[in-house]
């Protein structure tokens, strides 16, 4: 298989050739790129394989995974294809590198958060957990996609209280939706716009390490 997506991979500095590692796949926001996401995870780069997935569609100087009819309204055919191809990519990369398939995480921001939550719902316990930063689940995913149980999937959702792109109401609605499905849900609000604060970063890094059974970061 030729991977559909260009990707940037960071392997732990002192890798044990006999060991399989937890992995975090990152999905960037609309108009951004895979390299912008690595800084969020740099503090845990010695514990996880980190794979930044670049959207395959150009948008200005950056990229996207699908296009929109309007804000919050993805073009369905493009969204369907992205969800399908990203799942195939995750399986492809798991075979290619020393990845523990029982410890696969997704971390996405905005458009990447939307896809991370969608993939959690379609892949179920093929994923260990997701971190969703300022996103939502499209209505057609909830009502028309073949959904798997996420009762064994760890879910970290955060949203900006002053998000001017996806109002905080959307964060509350998204958390309420997952609360009914995912017992291992963490939902936090932060006093930010459509972005990621240092506090938010600190919290999800510790959440990732704890969930993967690793030592957490001290303040």
From TrEMBL:
Keywords: Hydrolase. Residues 18-200 form the Phospholipase/carboxylesterase/thioesterase domain. Belongs to the AB hydrolase superfamily. AB hydrolase 2 family. Gene3D superfamilies: alpha/beta hydrolase. It comes from the Bacteria. It comes from Paenibacillus pectinilyticus. This is Esterase. The keyword Hydrolase applies. GO terms for molecular function: hydrolase activity. PANTHER family: LYSOPHOSPHOLIPASE-LIKE PROTEIN 1, LYSOPHOSPHOLIPASE-RELATED.
